[in-house]
Amino acid sequence: MTTQDTPLPGPRVNGEKVADLCRQLLEAVGEDPEREGLQGTPERVARWWTEFLDHDPGRMDTVFEEDLPAGTDRVVIVRGIVAWSLCEHHLMPMRLELTIGYRPCGSVLGLSKFARIVAAHAHRLQLQERIVDGVAADVAKVTGSADVGVVAEGTHLCMSMRGVRQDQARTLSHSLSGAFADGGILGGELLAAAGAGRR
Ligand SMILES: [Zn+2]
C-alpha cells in the first residue's frame, strides 16, 4: 500500500523572497517597513509561509489489518477533525471541520491518519471542495474501501471579513461514494454525524 502519488507539499517556499515581497507589500499599502512595530515582520511572515506550506503530515498509510468475521458490517465514522487551510482566491484562511466515514474491508485505518490525510490536503492553497475530494480519494486508496464519505463545514474569512461580510455563513460540501452515495442510509448517517458534531 502506498500513498506516493499523494501530492505532498515539498520544501518549495523561498523564504528570502517572501520576506522581500512582504517588505514591498508593506510599502505598497502605505506603511513604513522600518517603523518599530514592523521590524522583523517580513521575516516572521516568511517563516509562517514556510511552516504552513512545507508542512510534513507524516506517514498516512498505516492500516491495522483486521480480519472481520464474514458477514460483519461495520462502519467507521470520525468527526470533529479541524483543519485550517488557505483559500486560493484570496489567500485568506478557511477553517474546516470534517466528518469522515468508511466501511472497512479487511483493514482499519489508524485514527490519527485521518488527521494526517486532512493536513496533507489543507496545508496548501486550496478550495474547500478540492480538500473534500482529495481526502475522500486518499481514504479510499489507503483503506481499499469503495464506501467512503467525507463532509466538511467551512468558515471562510474571505466571506467573513470582506465582500458580503457573512460572518455566520458556513459552507457545506461533501464527497460520497459507494454505500454513502445515492441517498443511502450511510450517507444520511454521515450527514447526521456531521450535524451532531457542530452542536
Ligand atoms: Zn476566498
Can you offer a commentary on this structure?
- This protein is of the alpha+beta class.
- It has two domains: 15-53, Orthogonal Bundle (GTP Cyclohydrolase I, Chain A, domain 1); 63-196, GTP cyclohydrolase I, C-terminal domain/NADPH-dependent 7-cyano-7-deazaguanine reductase, N-terminal domain (GTP Cyclohydrolase I, domain 2), CATH 3.30.1130.
- The protein is 36% helix and 23% strand.
- The chain is built from six helices and seven strands, in the order H-H-E-E-E-E-H-E-H-E-H-E-H.
- It has helices spanning 15-28, 41-53, 111-122, 128-143, 157-160, 185-196; strands at 63-65, 76-87, 92-102, 107-109, 125-126, 148-156, 171-176.
- The strands form two sheets. The protein has a five-stranded mixed β-sheet. A two-stranded antiparallel sheet has the order 1-4.
- A hairpin with a 4-residue loop joins strand 2 (76-87) and strand 3.
- Helix 3 (111-122) runs antiparallel to helix 4.
- The protein is elongated, with a radius of gyration of 20 Å.
- Residues 1-7 have low confidence and may be disordered.
- Bound molecules: zinc ion.
